[in-house]
Amino acid sequence: MTALTLATVLRLRARLSPGSPVLVDVHGQLTAADLLDLARRTRPARHHRGVHAQDAGTPAPADVHLRPGPLREILAAVAAPGVRRIAVRSSGTTAAPRALARGPLSLTQLVLGLDLAHRLGMRPGRTIACAAPGEHGHGLSAAAGALALGMVLVDVSRLDMPAAHALLRSTAPDLITGVPVHLLDLARTGPLPIPRALSGSDVLTASMRQELLAAGIGRVHDVYGTTETGSLCVDGVPLRGVRIRERDGLLAVRSPFTQGRTVITDRGRIGSDGTVAVTGRADGRVSSGGLLHDPGAVRAFVAGLPGIAAVRLEVVPDARFGARTRGRIRIDPAHPAADGGDAAAAEVIRRVREEVRARFGAAAVPREILLEPGPPTDTDQDSARRT
């Protein structure tokens, strides 16, 4: 089976265009040879508990874990000698969150990628800016795909807004990609005179699209996919090799990345013209800025913390992240904080935030936490609901 690795791509580019940059960031420019040299000096973190992409259930060889960092470090780890598989953290769209191993692309996966590139206007010689972190599936696939297509990659991930805008002005990219929150942060802090934006990994609402267009972006594409299935649709139209069916309001998907299996991704519908519209998560999880969390699990965890008598979580709209949670808690009357005044209440809220962040990550921390006065009532329920 035909397969393509990042190291192979870089060797080809080093041979065909030895002095041309392939990556630009705040530290300067790197040619393909520079990136290969960095890869040779990289010792990526490995583990021996990876899961095969085909979910065969057998132990995987040593997979490489990607640490957070600039794209030059991420790509060097992927292209390092001896690396065959990368452990990409699944968000849990189509199964429980877990590490998925991704190796070289097969022929059918390459065909899907080429169709994606064609629809998005990704061409050799063009420049694409990436605002998505490279250790996430979105950022890694965008960066590796751009290099494979002969494009120049501009890394604006993990930069503050002034630095990101300065780099965008100096490089004048043809395209920019990121989660909606990344793109909106840039649009709200300065003009974005970029021909195309590629939004993915989270819901892109009509108002978000209009805001990006108003910032100067010529065209905004909505790319739908998951870590497990790969990219599936561009602006609602399935890619080559992707089969999507609607089953009782759920989207059943088969793609070159599912190894012949059909998996349930999200709630959605398919129009008479074949256009796919995603309407919500199939499992009740919430996406905040492209990061998934489970309000039910958060609620159960908070309910078990010392001094908490009752918990309610509400999913509310958020202008920046799309959706966040708002918590309402009652303190156990027997707990010292119950009669400790505002300072004690503030300490309880601070502790809840810290515990949730440590257990589930920053995206799961409620946007605000309100204290409900008095003892628990019959209306207090162990629930997480959407408003």
Protein described:
This protein is α/β, with parallel strands linked by helices. The chain folds into two domains: 6-43 and 61-281, ANL, N-terminal domain (Rossmann fold), CATH 3.40.50; 294-378, GMP Synthetase, Chain A, domain 3 (2-Layer Sandwich), CATH 3.30.300.30. 29% of the residues lie in helices and 29% in strands. It has ten helices and 23 strands. Strand 12 and strand 13 form a beta hairpin. Residues 48-62, 90-99 and 380-387 have low confidence and may be disordered.
What would you say about this model in short?
This protein folds into 2 domains: about 5-45 and about 60-280, Rossmann fold, CATH 3.40.50; about 295-380, GMP Synthetase, Chain A, domain 3, CATH 3.30.300.
Q: What value does the Rg take, in angstroms?
A: 22 Å
Q: Could you say what the CATH topology of the largest domain is called?
A: Rossmann fold
Largest sheet, strands/sense/barrel: 9 strands, mixed
Provide the structure class.
alpha/beta
Whole-number count of domains: 2
- Mind telling me the CATH superfamily name of the largest domain? ANL, N-terminal domain
Mean pLDDT level: 82
Number of H- or I-type helical stretches: 10
Number of DSSP E strands: 23
Estimated helix fraction: 25-40%
Return residue spans where pLDDT drops below 50 for at least 5 consecutive residues: 48-62, 90-99, 380-387
Which sequence of strands runs across the widest sheet? 2-1-8-7-9-10-11-12-13
**Which term fits the overall shape?**
globular
End-to-end CA span: 49 Å
Task: Give the amount of beta strand, in percent.
Answer: 25-35%
User: Judging by the overall fold, what is the CATH architecture of the largest domain?
Assistant: 3-Layer(aba) Sandwich
CATH class of the largest domain: Alpha Beta
InterPro entries: AMP-dep_synth/lig_dom, ANL_N_sf
Protein name: Acyl-CoA synthetase
Pfam families: AMP-binding
